[in-house]
Amino acid sequence: MEDGSAAAKPETASLLRACIQVVRPHQWVKNIFILAPLFFSHQLLNWESLQASAQAFLFFSLLSSAVYILNDITDRKSDRLAPNKSKRPLANGTLSLTLALCLLTACLAAAALIGSLSDFAKDCLIWGGLYGLINIAYNAGMKQIPILEKFLVSSGYVIRILLGSAAIGQTPSFWILFTTASVSFLLVAGKRRDDLAMIEREGLPLSMRPVLAHYSRAFLDQVIMIAASVTIMTYLLFCMSDYAIHRYGESFAFSAVFVVFGVLRYVQITQLGRGADAPTTLVMQDGILRISILLWSGYVAYIAYG
């Protein structure tokens, strides 16, 4: 009996790790975009707004985990062909399809409960529902449509801003939305470029991500340059807008230095073929990117709250 019990413990631990891995809590860092409206609206020290933003963050974290599970279920066969995805629980068989569906349902139920108990339940339904529909359409076949698939992925970041704004009763600036859209499109384009480079370098089949058959590295390099230019331009225009000057003063424009540096660093990484990881993982691993983000955050916090 003792031997059987001892053998069961590693299996239980392995299954628990698989469940955590498929939920991807490390990807919740993306939901920091939900807190951006709180930060920029001078309400970071307001307890009610802080509580509402935390609810929105938790709601969207659970919802996005459900989407990650859906993605893994849909892509489990093609993931087996990719070196960096073949170790995912559903791809390697560590996690059964039945248990994955149970986890997906649990995440959706928990998100629905948190959203319904919030003071902005209607907004959770609207933006959460839109996010869910976009991802269902994405997995149903739109991820195979070149260019459009990048817009669909990047739209998730804009939805996060809209939900975060609704949670604290604020109307987001057009420039904040536009800058968010352009920087997220840049991140997605960089990821596609590195996926394609990896496939070509290692001689992998395009069936692991069929949409890449419609791209070339030269085309994606141009897309990255355009997205980087638009990101820098829109942020500069945001800094010079009446909205920003009225709220933060003219010295806010100096924050653009850190944005330009961070964008150029990301472009450099993609050109060197070192950005094949998810953008969130890349940001956490690259010291220069981390420093530029921390300096930007610190400077903006000083301007807004100093």
From TrEMBL:
One of its GO terms (molecular function) is transferase activity, transferring alkyl or aryl (other than methyl) groups. It is found in: Membrane. One of its GO terms (cellular component) is plasma membrane. The chain crosses the membrane at residues 52-70, 90-114, 120-139, 223-245, 251-267, 288-305. It is a multi-pass membrane protein. Gene3D superfamilies: UbiA prenyltransferase. It comes from the Bacteria. Keywords: Cell membrane, Membrane, Transferase, Transmembrane, Transmembrane helix. InterPro entries: Prenyltransferase, UbiA_prenyltransferase, UbiA_sf. The keyword Transmembrane helix applies. GO terms for biological process: glycolipid biosynthetic process. This is 4-hydroxybenzoate polyprenyltransferase. It comes from Aestuariispira insulae. The lineage of its organism: Bacteria, Pseudomonadati, Pseudomonadota, Alphaproteobacteria, Rhodospirillales.
